[in-house]
Amino acid sequence: MASLPEALAETRLEWDSPLYRMAVAQFDQAVEHAGIHEDSAERLRYPERSIIVSVPVRMDDGRTVVFPGYRVQHSSILGPTKGGVRYDEDVTLGECAALAMWMTWKCALLRLPYGGAKGGVRCNPRAMSQGELERLTRRFTSELLPIIGPQEDIPAPDMATDEQTMAWMMDTYSMQSGFAVPEIVTGKPISIGGSVLRMEATGAGVVMVVARACERLGWRLEDQRCVVQGFGNVGSVAARELTERGAQVIAVSDVSGGLHAEDGLAIEELEAYVRKHGSLAGCEAGRRISNEELLELECDILVLAAREDQVTGENASRVRARMIAEGANGPTTLEADEILAARGIPVLPDVLTNAGGVTVSYFEWVQDLGRIFWTRDEIRAKLAEKLADAFDRVWDVSQERGITLRTSALVAGIRDVAEALEARGLFP
User: Fold this and answer.
1) Which backbone phi and psi does 113 adopt, to 5 degrees?
2) What is the 3-state secondary structure (H, E, C) of 280-324?
3) 253 located within any domain
4) Cα–Cα distance between 269 and 203 in angstroms, integer?
5) Taking a C-beta distance cutoff of 8 angstroms, is the pair 387, 409 a contact?
6) pLDDT in tens, 204-261
7) Would you say residue 151 has pLDDT above 90?
8) Which residue of 47, 69, 107, 373 lies most exposed, with the fewest beta carbons within 10 A?
9) Which residues participate in catalysis according to the annotation?
10) Full 3-state SS string of 48-93
């Protein structure tokens, strides 16, 4: 019979992945400064619930293909769980567990009444037709019916999913309920209860946090030269918002590679090109560069809006940015964090910097529950207020304790969850 420590080690293996190990390592570093009880810390190292489902889909050629699907709910201590659904060939249970854990800290940091969740299907969405994606989404939603709900777990868009995906999820859930339930998902079309600003919220929030950091550092945002890795929903919006605020975006990239122009890129023209062609491939608006070269360009602000593990122990010493803003989840590894901290390069962490999406998702959920909707200006003002409050708390703790902004952000989120956990106790 396994001893307790051995049993716990075996439990960790259920979610084992490089990303989950990184999330737990970040948690353990922050716990040293959070001052919470070890029993609470032990409970928060693991997700509350994880599910693996088979998703059979009738393909256009008549075959039935079974895809693996996942949903991980990290913590329901503060309220229903909340998190995205991604379609990608690299989706795993461990990846979902890591992202769900980060979402818990993010929601607590922004003082949203949510816990973290994440899910997805391992597939290649770019190789699937619209009909196949719809059938995949509806079957995946059907498999999740026992564990999702407006007061249980609320999905949202993520990698390779969008408002159409959410519309299919909402319709599938509503058909089983017998009436429309718009509050089951967020990030859906406005016509069925979606919120204005939702699709731009993450990218807009990144720039709000960058602007706040520039104020604290005594920089003028309009004087900064910026590089944006990732030109999808987050990166393109961030790039546009930066230029609208007077900053100069000298390079961007997507899966096809990057573009670099020392005099600045015309972001609206690039967005129009991507809408027409699907990516930056073939675009000649600047000098073609690789993603690797883009990360090492000399600039003031580097926005990481692609995916995890982009700045690592291998390339962090060659990064020539004065500040890094994480628009994606987990783009900077633990080894890179140490190198960047030693070099004096501040990193605006993902749990704060890309929290605009979940914040406006919360606004959408509240609007759906009350059937009362706000204007774009009202939502933008509420978002700016939430992010400014969170940033100021993170910055102040970082300065007082001499810790990184990431550790400070995690400390704030972990403390709030642990306090609620201790108040509620352990049932039974």
Assistant:
1) -80, 55
2) CCCCCCCEEECHHHHHCCEEEEEEECCCCCCECCCCHHHCEEEEE
3) yes
4) 18
5) no
6) 999 999 999 999 999 999 999 999 999 998 999 999 999 999 999 999 999 899 999 9
7) yes
8) 373
9) 118
10) CEEEEEEEEEECCCCCEEEEEEEEEECCCCCCCEEEEEEEECCCCH
In a domain, 370, yes or no: no
Of 162, 151, 174, nearest to 82 (Cα)?
A: 151
14 pLDDT above the threshold of 90: no
Q: For residues 148 and 223, state if they share a domain.
A: no
Cis peptide bond N-terminal to 157, omega within 30: no
- Torsion, Cα 397 84 291 264, to 10 degrees, reads -70
H and E: helices and strands count for the chain: 15, 12
Same domain, yes or no, for 109 and 245? no
Structural domain total, the chain = 2
**Assigned domain for 326 exists:** yes
52 and 173 assigned to the same domain: yes
Assess if residue 406 is contained within a domain: no
User: What CA–CA distance (Å, rounded) separates 227 from 247?
Assistant: 11
Distance of CA 316 to the CA centre of its chain: 22
Q: What is the pLDDT of residues 253-283, one digit of tens each?
A: 998 999 999 999 999 999 999 999 989 999 9
Q: What is the pTM of this model?
A: 0.92
Q: Residue 310 sits in which domain range?
A: 201-353
CA atoms in the 13 A half-sphere facing the CB of 373: 15
CB 148 within 8 A of CB 184: yes
How far apart (Å, rounded) are the C-alpha atoms in residues 65 and 406? 41
178's CB contacts (< 8 A; 6+ apart) are none
The CATH number for 325's domain is: 3.40.50.720
% of the chain at pLDDT higher than 70:
97
Closest CA to 248 of 232, 225, 268: 225
Token readout for 394 is: 């993170």
Contacts (Cβ under 8 Å, ≥6 apart) of 400: none
CB-CB contact of 326 with 347 (8 Å): yes
In angstroms, the CA 168 to CA 68 distance is: 19
Find tokens 């546009």 and name the residue. 240
**Whole-number mean pLDDT of the chain?**
95
Strands (E), 123-272: 153-157, 225-229, 248-254, 257-260
pLDDT at 3 over 70: no
- Whether the CB-CB separation of 155 and 119 falls below 8 Å is answered with yes
Residue 176 shares a structural domain with residue 205: no
Are 342 and 218 part of one and the same domain? yes
Identify whether residues 65 and 176 lie together within a single domain.
Answer: yes
The residues with which 67 forms a beta bridge, in sequence order, are 55
